[in-house]
Amino acid sequence: MKPPFDSLRGLVLAIFLLMSFYAYSENHNPFIPNAGQWDGPFTYKAEFNNLTVFAEAKGFTFLAKEPVAHYPHDGHSDHDVISESVMAHAFRLRFEGAEPIVFSGAERLSAYHNYFLGRDRSKWQGRVPLYQGLSTNEFYEGISLKVATEKGSFKYDYIVNAQADPNQIRFKYLGQDDISILDGKLILNTAVGDYIESLPVSYQIIDGERIIVECSYVEYSAGVFGFSFPQGYDHTYPLVIDPVLVAATLSGTGGGGGANFGHGATFDLAGNIYTHAISFDSAYPITDGAFQEDYGGGGTDVAISKLTPDGTDLIFASFVGGSGSDSPFSTIVNANQEIYIYG
User: Fold this and answer.
1) Taking 80 as the threshold, does the pLDDT of residue 56 lie above it?
2) pLDDT on residue 323
3) Among candidates 8, 31, 28, which has minimal Cα distance to 20?
4) Are 194 and 138 in contact (CB under 8 A)?
5) pLDDT more than 70, % of the chain
6) pLDDT per residue as tens digits for the range 231-252
7) pTM to 2 decimals?
């Protein structure tokens, strides 16, 4: 398909396409169900600023990575893999005395993902739905979770029903180097930096008015935490406890933790945008603690994304790869909207 513009206009359009893709990526952190495309005992996965979150029956597993410093884009044979190790750290949030957690997708998005990873076709999955958030069953009596994204960070709310006892909540982090309460915040030390559970904002909606409830962390026993309410609250109304897990210093999404490095873009006759990139997928960590991940012999897949002509909405993303380092160098879409990937 011959492009209907000269090389200068083509360059300007390519820049616009890539900027549109990154603008979309920076503002969307979907929760993706594990339909069999990934190994591991988790049901949903999401990516947040070099932090991968796995939702599972016992709570959450987190995989934090330092950013990948660089990735060559020229496609030359002597530069087609990353000769770099990155530091990673796995830690987990577990709820003590709770029933198994059943996560369900909330607010389904119009976009979907396709996965063609490895030689085992039974693991290939198409049209995997994406969700804006998650909800759960009552894993403590009268208490459930709502999971979402807040400004690119992982956020979860405890929903305490009227007359339910929030003192049931007992949670423990595993695998971090250290954990402490400082200035009312929960500080987790890892090999790739500190992560902070912010001072929880708790509130009730009473007669249509949002009433703030004073709330703080309390350590019940060694490493086991919960919440206290020094001024009490009205137990005849539901209570929301709202912490947010953030990195102490965010360094952007420049690699690691499922991030993409964009290589280029093209379009079809309808004006839809197609970008091609490499994707650093994050596998479920088997063990806790710090480790190094080597990108010198694999770990990258091809990511093809189709966006609307204005770049504001993702239509689909497809991930293609094997055991090596897979890199796309160019993409062409023909008149039948068939995508050809060269790499």
Assistant:
1) yes
2) 72
3) 28
4) no
5) 80
6) 999 999 999 999 888 876 543 3
7) 0.82
